[in-house]
Amino acid sequence: MKKLKGRMDESILVCVYYGPNGEKLIRRGCQIASMLDCPLYILTIDPKPFDEMDAEKSHYITRWKQLAEHFSADAFILKDNDKRPVSKVITEVAREKGITQIILGQTAQSRWEQIAKGSIINTLLREIPFVDLHIISVSRYLKDQEGQFEKGVRAYLVKDGSNYRVTFKHTKDAEYEGIFFKDQGTDFNNGVFKFMKDQMTLQVIVTEDIISDLTNVDLDDSLNDDDE
Predict the structure, then answer these.
(1) String of b and e for 145-179 (b: at least 16 CB within 10 Å)?
(2) Closest residue by Cα to residue 87 from 10, 13, 23
(3) Which of 59, 93, 73, 66 is nearest to 29 (CA)?
(4) Residues 90 and 100 sit within 8 Å (Cβ to Cβ)
(5) How far is CA 13 from the centre of its chain?
(6) Which of 189, 158, 180 is CA-nearest to residue 171?
(7) Between 20 and 30 A from 202 (CA), which of 32, 55, 175, 176?
(8) What is the DSSP string of 43-108?
(9) DSSP of 178-214
(10) What is the 3-state secondary structure (H, E, C) of 23-51?
(11) Which stretches of the chain score pLDDT less than 70?
């Protein structure tokens, strides 16, 4: 049985998309909802039906459901098989649930896309001006309780045969921009590169400047960190 919330005049909606940044957004939403003692909802949207999603997307959804239960969220809302613009779905849920504050991650839209099409943020401000928006950027820190990594620095990926090479100077050959976290126990560029690809935030392993696999790695699966 859920604890009765003390304040019903405030209500938090966390909008998550695939990638490790989603968990950070949920934890931030939980902190705000806990301070305000108000309802918390978690929303994710996908144009595909749930049973057609790949294993990685299914993993994230399962993880978010676990976090929603762990933090006693009022509901985890999955809008699958929904091909409407993301802003329309968020607006609909915000109105249905009486949302007063929305937490969003940094979008993958480029400046040119924002100019040509208009950003999700601008649309939400126009459609639901009564709601406060919190925009959370991709962190320059990893969840690194053992002190394994140095503070992140700006870096780029360039194609190197079938692999990618990390460089620290932008050139016309750079395909991705992100943050490199160097392992403190090495003199070489070994560590983790964090970047955005196809609207997903990914963390990939770097070995002596080289990334051979762009598959995301989850560095910490614990539910118990940062609960407070």
Answers:
(1) eeeebeebeebbbeeeeeebbbbeeeeeeeebebb
(2) 13
(3) 73
(4) no
(5) 14
(6) 158
(7) 32
(8) EEE-SS-GGGS-HHHHHHHHHHHHHHHHTT-SEEEEE-S--S-HHHHHHHHHHHHT--EEEEEPP-
(9) EEEEEBTT-SSS-EEEEEEETTEEEEEEEBTTEE---
(10) HHHHHHHHHHHHHHCCCEEEEEECCCCHH
(11) 1-8, 20, 106-118, 137-147, 199, 219-228
Residue-wise pLDDT for 96-142, tens only, equals: 999 999 998 765 444 444 444 557 888 888 999 989 998 876 555 56
Angle of helix 21-36 relative to helix 55-70, nearest 10 degrees?
A: 20
Give the gyration radius of the chain's Cα atoms: 19
* Separation of alpha carbons 39 and 205, rounded Å: 38
Q: What is the structure's pLDDT at 219? A: 60
Distance in angstroms (rounded) separating the CA atoms of residues 38 and 29: 11
**What DSSP character marks residue 223?**
S
- Of residues 36, 7, 56, the one with CA closest to residue 134: 36
**Single pTM value for the model:** 0.63
